[in-house]
Write a structure and sequence with these properties.
single chain, alpha+beta, nine-stranded antiparallel β-sheet, globular
């Protein structure tokens, strides 16, 4: 399951609301995000994310910073409640061209459909060869965060818990610790 963690983290990042537009923040509380990868044999990944207003702003700011630093193209269009994002981003030696469509609302449920093509990408077990990927993230609000959760906590598939604030302090992350 560990080899899927980077894909799940990327999918979760994509599932957060788009910072480049003036979209309403996600409702405070516990969100469940199910990521389905098409065309491969990776099982669906489900994660839960506890957010408050501050964590939501932090995720949007981090996403905007990452896009600014890594993406040569970030075209975001909004038509009603649908947001379309076309981007070209470089992650180390890999260049990814993606098209994402976000629909729904940030109070109860939304869906992110992403199709991407990567060049220079290492092979990922369970994914089609050639760097093409299609995934869908279905996010739904579950209610209040659980008693043992604090804002920023993400419980990944398999029960691994990380906090978005801790990830920000990792070397190489936008706003995080500097590499030595």
């Amino acid at each position: 399951m560990r080899q899927y963690l980077p894909l799940a983290v990327i999918a979760l990042a994509c599932a957060s609301p788009v910072a480049a537009l003036d979209v309403p923040p996600r409702k405070v509380g516990l969100w469940e995000m199910k990521t389905t990868f098409e065309g491969g044999n990776i099982p669906p990944q489900t994660a839960q994310h506890c957010i408050d207003a501050e964590t939501g702003k932090l995720m949007n700011a981090t996403g905007a910073s990452m896009a600014k630093d890594m993406c040569s193209k970030q075209d975001v269009q909004q038509a009603g409640s649908t947001i379309v994002i076309d981007s070209v981003c470089k992650f180390g030696p890999m260049t990814t061209t993606s098209h994402a469509v976000v629909s729904g609302d940030f109070n109860s449920a939304y869906t992110v459909k992403i199709s991407s093509e990567s060049q220079g990408a290492p092979a990922v077990q369970g994914m089609p060869a050639g760097g093409a990927a299609n995934l869908t993230v279905e996010a739904k609000w579950l209610g209040a965060c659980k008693a043992d959760q604090k804002p920023g906590d993400m419980v990944m598939a398999g029960g691994q818990k990380v906090n978005i604030r801790d990830l920000q302090n990792m070397p190489g992350m936008p706003g995080g610790a500097k590499k030595k």
